[in-house]
Amino acid sequence: MAGDYYEALALFSRIIIMFLLGLESDIPYLLRHLRPASVLSAAACLVCTAFAAAITPFIYQATASDGPILVMVLMLSAILSNSASPVLIRIAVELRFATTDLGRLAISSALLTDMYAVVLLVISSRTKNSWPFTAWFFYGILALLMVIAVIILNMYLANWLNRRNRNQKHLKNAEAFGILSVVVVAAMAIEMMGFNSIIACFLIGSMFPKGGKTGRTLLPKLNYSVHNFIFPVYLGYMGFQADVTNVNSLSSLGVIAIVLLLSAGGKISGTLAACYYLKIPMNVGVLFAFLMNVKGYVDLVTISIGLQNKVVTSQLFYSLMIITLVVNTLIVGPVIAFMVRRERYTLGYRHAALEWQEPEIELTMLACVHNPRHVSTIVGLIAALRGSDRGPIVPYLMHLIELPEKNKSNLMYHQREDDELSDDDNYGGSDVVEINEAVDAFAAETGVVVHQVKVVSPFLNMHSDVCDRAEEIRASIILLHFHKHRRIDGKMETGREGIRTTNQKVLRHARCSVAILVDRGFTGTSHTSGTSGSESLQHVATLFFGGPDDREALGFSQRLSMHHHINLTIIRFLPASAKNSNAGVNVAHREEDVLMSMSEHETENEADTAVLTEFYNRYVTSGQVGYVEKYVENGAETASALMDMADMYSLFIVGKGGRGHSPLTTGMSDWEECPELGTVGDLLASTDFDISGSVLVIQQHRHSSNDDER
User: Fold this and answer.
1) What span, in angstroms and rounded, lies between the C-alpha atoms of 23 and 215?
2) For a Cys staple, 306 with which of 113, 312, 586, 669, CB 3.0–4.6 Å?
3) Is the CB of residue 561 less than 8 Å from the CB of residue 619?
């Protein structure tokens, strides 16, 4: 009776674990990098399968196993080739490389090897029933249709729950339990048909809607439950079934040693061969091989189900394989930690400026808001950056909430009174609900999942939370909103001084580009992306005076130009003395000439001309982007030119500064009010400057020696 109870507990644990694994999987990234991930996983799996077939006769005899030897080949292939993606995800998160290219590729490859091992498991477990092939095929089709039906049902159920009770931050426990009940019932039905439900649970989780209140509730609840209760209990049950007293001979120790060596050897040789084919550096390939050798889930399920279904009746085989997996974990874990620390520079946060990024490359951005006022503008900007071609973008929205000094306490959680107990969910009040509603509406309309983060911190060190999170997610740019906001009469009203202080500190300490948004109601494309016509067109101007910040603004702008409802114009300001000279854009340059120009000339003017020339040849000559040159003598003429175009554009993009002493802005800094916006940005954001468009001021990260030390 107790055995049945533990088997039922193990089954429910497998269902929840695989559903969470599917929920956590980054399927869009896997699809974009399917070729390298599949090559790496296929190479490792093929070598491990060959090794498993070679050693099966020896292990079959050494463990006195009974049953079809082909089943043991499949089981050993699954054990050797499996890479425990749930365990690898936790290792990557704890060692802080989960968001690196190496970490994400390793997790994707481990996911594919898991699926390969699961397929072998399903094939090997088919022998537990004696159905003819026609009946087996019929029930297989029925199980597939059931999985599809559950996926569709979950989509409608999640959307309905997201629209229900809009004033709630999260789902109620009963609602979350209802969703899990649908998954469990479907998995149990598949098990009763004679199939293993692992793949079905993973598919249901991977196709579950990630956005909205439902995904925001299920992920943290399941993460906490699985990693702190379900997974440890499941592993304990697996170990409880093993009998280590059976390991009392040299042949048993030989089996353990051989499986360990062939598992590591198969993964290392296969992965290194794939890395050589994919031109991945060898030092990274060795680390990748050890990451792929992490064990601890599907392999345990394989030997457990094999024992339960009596396809392999040897208790010694089960015990030896459990010991092998434990020893493998004890060896691989410290080796990975050592290699990750050794490759700290390779895995470290190295920012690549937008100036040098192609618009087709995935953009990771961290947008910060203090209240719901600016959320609509920020999500509109995110939609515009995504482009009409659905370019890869990973947006994070961080809700910054001030922690009042009086709420700080040195008491431990269990020492506080009931009225003192409060966690981060209780901060933010109705602002959290409004932000969630705006983000959920955006996700439902565009299909872009915005990862939401909430930080409760005093203004004194709030910038540290922003910079640390940007470094953790490998953000290319941090988007902040200005401390002033627009009133109903159109004037700018000063907000909290702590917001301005936070912006200034982020500009100083961030290790990536930083943009400050002066919001005057730019709607972006979040509410017009599904329509066509001139009424949805947004006119955006990028002001180019020269310098690294303006070049970064140009790199940011090229992503906006990919959207069909964005009409982008580059406005370059030049001194009037250069009107009859060759200081403008040389459209005759080819891309090779531009790169040669960049390497031969080091002055900022030549760098500006080279970057603009490449941009002109790529976007302007095709008619995708407009280009205008303005010739001015001094700051007064520049201000006058800006005033003339005040009502022509809904968004102005400009670099903060870095231009040195420029005659184009001479005298403009005399009335500078907010130095964090730069000379031009401060003028455009000024209350006295009558302009209707929003302003985005961008600062490019300057590499320093401190970056290498961190």
Assistant:
1) 9
2) 312
3) yes
d(CA 480, CA 706): 23
More confident site: 49 or 64: 49
In whole angstroms, give the CA distance from residue 701 to residue 513. 5
- Averaged pLDDT, 326-337: 86
Residues 6+ apart with CB under 8 A from 65: 59, 72, 312, 313, 314, 317
Query: What would the two tokens of residue 61 be?
Result: 């005899």
**Beta partners for residue 397, in sequence order:** 367, 452
Q: How far apart are CA 188 and CA 191, in angstroms?
A: 5
Taking residues 33-48, what's their average pLDDT? 92
Task: Report pLDDT for 71.
Answer: 82
Check if the beta carbon of residue 693 is closer than 8 Å to that of residue 642: no
219-238: average pLDDT: 82
Contact 18, 222 (CB under 8 A): no
- For the chain, domain boundaries: 1-343, 354-404+431-527+536-577+601-699
Largest CA distance in the chain: 94
> How do residues 393-429 score in pLDDT, each as one tens digit?
889 999 998 887 655 444 443 334 434 434 445 555 6
Distance CA 595, CA 611 (A): 9
Average pLDDT, stretch 288-292? Answer: 89
What is the rounded distance in angstroms from the CA atom of residue 474 to the CA atom of residue 649?
A: 32
Q: pTM to 2 decimals?
A: 0.82
Note the helical H segments in 164-281.
173-192, 198-206, 212-225, 231-241, 250-278
Task: Output the pLDDT for position 708.
Answer: 47
Q: Do the Cβ atoms of 126 and 193 come closer than 8 Å? A: no
Q: Nearest CA to 226 among 402, 12, 403?
A: 12
Distances (CA, A) of 136 to 133, 140, 143, 190, 402: 5, 6, 10, 12, 60
**pLDDT band for position 22 (50/70/90)?**
confident
At residue 507, the pLDDT reads 92
Residues in CB range of 663: below 8 A, 6 or more apart: 575, 633, 634
Classified by CATH at the fold level, domain 1-343 comes out as Na+/H+ antiporter like fold (1.20.1530)
